[in-house]
Design goal:
This protein has helices spanning about 15-25, 30-55, 90-100, 105-115, 120-125, 195-205, 235-245, 330-335, 335-360, 360-380, 385-390, 405-415, 430-435, 440-445, 455-460, 495-510, 540-550, 565-580, 585-600, 610-635; strands at about 5-10, 65-75, 75-85, 140-145, 155-160, 165-170, 175-185, 210-215, 255-260, 265-275, 290-295, 295-305, 315-320, 420-425, 450, 465, 470-475, 515-520, 530-535, 560. The chain is α+β, with helices and mostly antiparallel strands. It has 3 domains: about 5-215, Histidine kinase-like ATPase, C-terminal domain (Heat Shock Protein 90), CATH 3.30.565; about 225-370, Ribosomal Protein S5, domain 2 (2-Layer Sandwich), CATH 3.30.230.80; about 495-635, Four Helix Bundle (Hemerythrin (Met), subunit A) (Up-down Bundle), CATH 1.20.120. The strands form 4 sheets. The chain has an 8-stranded mixed sheet, covered by helices on one side. A 5-stranded mixed sheet has the order 9-10-13-11-12, sandwiched between helices. The chain has a 4-stranded mixed sheet with strand order 15-14-17-16. A hairpin with a 2-residue loop joins strand 16 and strand 17. It is elongated. The N and C termini lie far apart (about 110 Å).
């Protein structure tokens, strides 16, 4: 062994602050430090187990994969040792892992404490700072580790929780890590076997590796994989604890799917739908994918073949005795059993989501807030799965009073004469509720779905129909709607035909090549105008896709439809006939067109309208003032 002189290192600033809090803490629930150390040891063992599947050229290859808790007393000094036979650390890894890597997590942790959102013991494992919780009970900590790599040498990390730590050579024949904790005088209880058993039972009972205390050869944790137990023997708290240990997500999952089956393939699965889509920075689960086991032995940490990408938020474990232990990534991918496993698991997840939607609508709303985007993305990327995905989706509509409804609900409410499912695209609910495209639908009391997510235009390119009903964009230029009742027919326009022609012509000359056509509307009632895609141009959905994906996006040339019965256009028509050169005419036309672009979410720079709006207000207030003075003179 090469002996190296001790090296001194300074902790990062955030870790110094963190250690100051922990070193001087007297929190009642200090036993969480052991939970954190056992969790770290379990992670090291899982990594070693995975390494052994494909690599036998490792140090101490025959060592049992386990965790040991040992206590020692030397006069007034009491020491607890947490030992594992996991993957171990090299010199560089121990410096990086225990000295610097948690600085961003420490920063977030400190911010959480400052905000008063939680106490340290509530969230200490959530930010990747769990190891440092040992300083709540320790006067000094010595970590001795030897990597699995055959030529690696043992190394020690020592700190008293002050501003620095040191690293030096060490003697260690076996693989793994030992944490020697010199306990504070008020923490002597942590050398007592019954106390250690109590902590293991409470926090680490379902760790996947045996835990031994002192020289007792009988393991103290159940270890039996929770997913191999009958569901009737498991409490929800057990599920939550297992999920927390597996992910370090301290928020309970939204739903748990636990089942076993022997036909058509042997499978035991315990799956979770996390409460949040985004993983915290220091989550133990770094990537999407399920933990795949064969007969209780981990063979793949992140399997992405069992569930489609639009269900990649599902976490958990799948265990099958039919899968061979010694398999490569490619073998797993091509194994015929995987297709059966995937089909079974997919069906169970979809069944649970359907149950959640029917029986726990508030919880399902939370699910939609987090994952509806991914489901919609699934329709766009995997159209052949839309029949499975669409029943899970929910949308607000013009008749849903702010609630989200299923497409099935929409179809059930359709009248006998309605042949299409109508939708409007927009940037948010507030803008689409005032969309001029809704005018004819309000008049006919037809329900319109609101598609306001950025992914929706991509979704509708694949979702062309549902239950033999075509999906119809309300901005379609060729929109055909049922006739209104005779009692609700439109009144004759106030403008004469000549004024209407002058009005349309003025729009044409003012807007120029910005539009392809200006015409009177067949559908508007309450809005002055609307813009619709040219009949031979891109649909509004495709326009949005180009806007999202093309940096050089330009506003397409559209058709402008005028509601010549609207007071603004009636006034404009009279003004053109009486005072053709009035400045306010062209300003108003430009503003109406730009306002329509904003309404459609197509305007590239809405602030450019401000000077025009100010000028219109000057003209309006100037006319009001002139009118008031004239009235006063006449009086």
């Amino acid at each position: 062994m090469t002996t190296q002189a001790p090296e001194a290192y300074q902790f990062k600033a955030e870790i110094k602050q963190l250690l100051q809090i922990l070193v001087h803490s007297l929190y009642k629930d200090r036993d969480i430090f052991l939970r954190e150390l056992i969790s770290n040891a379990s992670d090291a063992l899982a990594r070693m187990q995975f390494e052994l599947l494909t690599n036998q050229d490792v140090h101490d290859a025959e060592a049992e994969l386990a965790i040991w808790l040992k206590s020692a007393e030397d006069g007034d000094t009491k020491t607890l040792i947490v030992k594992d036979s996991g993957i171990g650390m090299t010199h560089d890894e121990i410096v990086r892992n225990l000295g610097t890597i948690a600085q961003s997590g420490a920063r977030e942790f400190l911010a959480t404490l400052r905000d008063g959102a939680a106490t340290p013991t509530d969230v200490i494992g959530q930010f990747g700072v769990g190891f440092y919780s040992v300083f709540m009970v320790a006067d000094e900590v010595r970590v001795v580790s030897r990597s699995y790599q055959p030529d690696a040498e043992a190394v020690a990390w020592i700190s008293d929780g002050g501003e620095d730590f040191r690293v030096e050579s060490a003697e260690k024949a076996d693989r793994g890590t030992e944490i020697h904790i010199k306990l504070k005088s008020d923490a002597s209880e942590f050398v007592q076997s019954f106390k250690l058993r109590e902590i293991v039972k409470k926090h680490s009972d379902f760790v996947s590796f045996p835990i031994y205390i002192d020289d007792n050869e009988k393991q103290v944790n159940q270890q039996q994989s929770l997913w191999r137990k009958p569901s009737q023997d498991i409490e929800q708290e057990d599920y939550n604890n297992f999920y927390q240990q597996m992910t370090l997500d301290f928020e309970p999952p939204l739903a748990t799917v636990h089942f076993s089956s022997d036909v058509p393939v042997n499978v035991r699965a315990m799956l979770f739908i996390p409460a949040k889509r985004e993983r915290n920075m220091f989550s133990l689960r770094k990537e999407p994918g399920l933990k795949l086991y064969s007969n209780n032995v981990l063979i793949q940490e992140y399997n992405t073949d069992l569930l489609p990408e639009w269900l990649n938020f599902v976490d958990g474990v799948v265990d099958s005795e039919d899968l061979p232990l010694n398999v490569s990534r490619e073998t797993v991918h091509n194994n015929r059993l995987m297709a059966h496993l995937g089909k079974t698991i997919r069906k169970r997840v979809l069944r649970e989501l359907g149950r959640l939607a029917e029986n726990e609508p508030e919880k399902y709303d939370q699910f939609l807030d987090q994952y509806q985007f991914i489901l919609k993305q699934g329709i766009a990327m995997e159209p052949q799965s839309k029949d499975e995905i669409v029943p899970l989706l929910r949308f607000q509509s013009s008749k849903s009073d702010g609630e989200r409804i299923a497409l099935d609900t929409y179809v059930e409410r359709m009248g006998d004469e309605q042949e299409a499912i109508y939708y409007v695209l927009g940037d948010d609910i507030r803008s689409v509720t005032h969309s001029p495209h809704l005018d004819p639908f309000k008049a006919r009391e037809l329900e319109v779905l609101y598609f306001v997510d950025p992914i929706d235009p991509f979704m509708v390119t694949a979702l062309l129909e549902y239950k033999d009903k075509k999906l119809q964009d309300v901005a379609d230029a060729g929109l055909e709607l049922p006739e209104l009742d005779s009692a609700e027919t439109e009144p004759e326009p106030e403008l004469e035909e000549k004024e209407r022609n002058l009005l349309v012509g003025r729009f044409v000359t003012t807007l120029g090549d910005r539009v392809t056509e200006v015409r009177e509307t067949k559908v508007l009632r309450d809005s002055p105008l609307r813009i619709v895609p040219a009949e031979d141009g891109m649909s509004s959905g495709m326009q949005r896709i180009y806007r999202y994906t093309d940096q050089n996006y330009e506003i397409p040339k559209m058709i402008v439809e005028l509601n010549v019965r609207h007071p603004i256009l009636v006034n404009l028509g009279h003004m053109i006939g009486a005072e053709e050169s009035a400045e306010v005419i062209d300003l108003t036309i430009d503003q109406l067109y730009d306002s329509a672009l904003v309404q459609e979410g197509l305007h590239p720079n809405p602030t450019a309208m401000l000077p025009r709006i100010q000028r219109l207000m000057e003209l309006a207030t100037g006319n009001q003032a002139t009118g008031a003075l004239t009235a006063g003179d006449e009086a």
